[in-house]
Amino acid sequence: MRQADLPDPDQLALRIQRGERAAVAGGLNLLDNKLPDARRRAARLLALLSAERRLNNGHLIGVTGPPGTGKSTLVCAMIREWRRVGKTVGVLAVDPSSRPELGGGALLGDRIRIKNVSYDEGLFIRSLANRNQLGGVATEVWPMSWLMLACFDIVVIETVGVGQTEIDIAEVADTVCYVAQPASGDAIQYLKSGIIEIPDVFAVNKSDLGAPAQKTAAEIGRSAPRQDRHEEWDYPVCLVSAAMNTGIKPLLDHIKRHRSFVAEAGLLDKLRSRHHAAWVMRLLKEEFGTFGLELVGGMAAVSERLVQHQTPHFEEYEHLRQRVLSRFQSEKQFSKFTKKEHSDEQATGPRLPVMPAFSVGSSSARRTWYWARVCSIASTAIRRSRLFCRDSSISLFRRASLKKSCQAMSAATALAVAAGAEPTAMAVSVAKLVATGAAGRS
């Protein structure tokens, strides 16, 4: 999408609120666009939509569970029941991506199972790949779900087939429904931490199998009450058969009841605000690491800012992102020298004074000159730079003992001189050694 083709966010927001399917598709495409101007327009669009719906409208439902449990077939049955009573439904179906070295891409197969006999204006399905991101959903799911919530009564997010630790859906949905399969494990599986901790409603699919489904439902029912959960909520376990279309209405009644429970307890707006803040933190951390967060005050300061500010979280995310980028641009790598102090080392690489012509056998003098030059360059680089390791997010700029580091490398000096190595190359090695030593002490 070219910059000239980017839609006006104010007009697009009005069309989305009217429920125009083309506008919803265009808005989702805008959210997926990574161009700088597109990001600004997307933040504006989401701010308009979230201000309209605010934090107490609609219902975000997450459907998760292991592969093969029948999540997509169950979602299809749920959609039929919702549409029968006149509810409009938007679906975000997430499928796993292929590994990049194997070609990338994804078979967006969930929507194949979510069949609908005829064209339906009240139903919108968007498939997307998880883009090799862990957690069960892609990072784009968060803003996309809020766009769809602006024009649909119910938004369903179906995760990829998950294991025990893919729990990101808990930071998106108002209600999480876990779909279990009969005879897929013993009672101990449902006592473990992780995925079993997050559901609000349990659905044991394929109940037409009989005794195995009933046994699984009983095991989940015994393990569902946990110390870390709301005592006022009963965490129901429903026996359903998506293929036979049985048990669907009681399941939806429990899902609706949970939404009412959260809203009446005054927890819905707090839940959504916490989810928004968590996703802002996640997006910033994924793009810039913990070091990037430290540049704008650290995780605690960012969390407090998100809670206190009344501006929409989408706009606040873009504001924080630009602050981090500006700070990164002001940071200098330790191997870059200022033009003012080293103007002779800028144009085509380091240009150092030629090593003096020492007499034969004066290896000590040769090493002394060489090492003095190395120390000069390395100390300037360390003094005028901020060494950091972005991956481990540790600030490495310390008052490290350059003298001690130089002594540790003295054995390499003679080899470097003999090989004709540039002093600057050795200086970079010294600076890296100092950084490694500082990281080890942190």
Structural shape? globular
SSE arrangement, N to C: HHHEHEHEHEEEHEHHHHHEEHHH
The total strand number stands at 9
What is the residue-mean pLDDT, rounded to a whole number?
75
| Structural class estimated from helices and strands | alpha/beta
Rg, rounded, reads: 29 Å
First and last CA, distance: 46 Å
Instruction: Record the strand order, biggest sheet.
Output: 3-2-4-1-5-6-7
Number of helices: 15
Uncertain regions spanning at least 5 consecutive residues: 332-361, 384-408, 438-442
Sheet of most strands: 7 strands, parallel
Instruction: Tell me the helix content.
Output: 40-55%
- As a percent range, the share of strand residues is 5-15%
Summarize this structure as a short list of keywords or feature phrases.
47% helix, 9 strands, two-stranded antiparallel ribbon, 442 residues, alpha/beta, 7-stranded parallel sheet
